[in-house]
Design brief:
Elements lengths: L5 H7 L2 H21 L3 H9 L5 H22 L6 H24 L2 H25 L5 H15 L6 H10 L5 H24 L5 H24 L6 H24 L1
Helix pairs in contact: 2-3, 2-4, 2-10, 3-4, 4-9, 4-10, 5-7, 5-9, 6-11, 7-8, 8-9
């Protein structure tokens, strides 16, 4: 198992850094609550310098689980249950495939996967938006397989899920709500798999739950301002941060 010592981490973090971590966790949950994605990426890029790379996606999966649990509650009246269940269950075997790949490769390869994966997600989202993609049930199944596989390996696959739901005809709150439901099941499968693979010890779960609890209040705030704040500027800011963060991870792959 990858070593993770909560006491040592807390000792090495100053009060200012802990305050920044909690603040970013809150805003990350607000960001994802408004747009449906971006929270795990934002927080993951912040904690990546002092979290072992093998624990980064497992740890962020806990945060994303909390964030989506609270978001689904606030948007529960808008969940498209049939499509959500279809997408989530179809992708489950591929989630396990992705987590096993994550656990088996070297840290250098993971830095490459995370770095290139973040950039790829930004390009893919923009490409799909440009061609005004429309898909049916078969297209939804293809996207479910793709999403399930990459969700076990990289940060921020949520934009792929949002694109799939929008291309399948869902709109507005339906997208955010159904996205939360699917991501909740996806994260549960990831956490179980990572636990069995030895990448989630009790301290990791405790630390992830600590920052994840902040997401509950963040989701509440997001629900209050979702109808008043546009997400276009947020999307641009997130994409710039993701590209920069991906570049840093690729650099770390060469200097690890």
């Amino acid at each position: 198992m990858e070593e993770f010592n909560l006491t040592e981490l807390a000792t090495n973090l100053s009060f200012a850094k802990i305050l920044i971590l909690i603040t970013v966790a809150f805003f990350a949950s607000v960001i994802s609550g408004i747009s449906g994605y971006g929270g795990g990426m934002t927080l993951g890029l912040l904690v990546s310098p002092f979290i072992p790379i093998k624990l980064l996606v497992p740890l962020m999966s806990i945060f994303v689980f909390f964030s989506n649990l609270s978001r689904m509650y606030f948007y529960r009246d808008h969940v498209f249950w049939k499509k959500g269940m279809y997408f989530a269950l179809l992708g489950l075997p591929f989630v396990i495939l992705g987590t096993n790949f994550y656990a088996s490769v070297s840290p250098q390869i993971l830095y490459f996967c995370l770095g290139f994966g973040l950039g790829f997600i930004v390009i893919l989202r923009r490409a799909f938006a440009k061609i005004n993609l429309t898909i049916g049930w078969f297209g939804l199944s293809v996207m479910a397989i793709f999403y399930g596989t990459i969700s076990g390996v990289i940060l921020g696959p949520g934009s792929v899920l949002l694109t799939a739901l929008a291309a399948n005809g869902l709109m507005g709150p339906q997208i955010v709500a159904t996205d939360s439901f699917i991501t909740l099941i996806n994260c549960a499968a990831r956490l179980i798999s990572f636990r069995q693979l030895g990448l989630l010890n009790n301290e990791t779960i405790f630390f992830g739950s600590l920052i994840g609890s902040v997401a509950i209040f963040g989701s509440y705030v997001a629900r209050k301002i979702a109808d008043k704040l546009g997400v276009k500027l947020h999307t641009v800011i997130i994409e710039v941060c993701v590209v920069l963060g991906g570049s840093v991870m690729i650099y770390r792959a060469f200097t690890f």
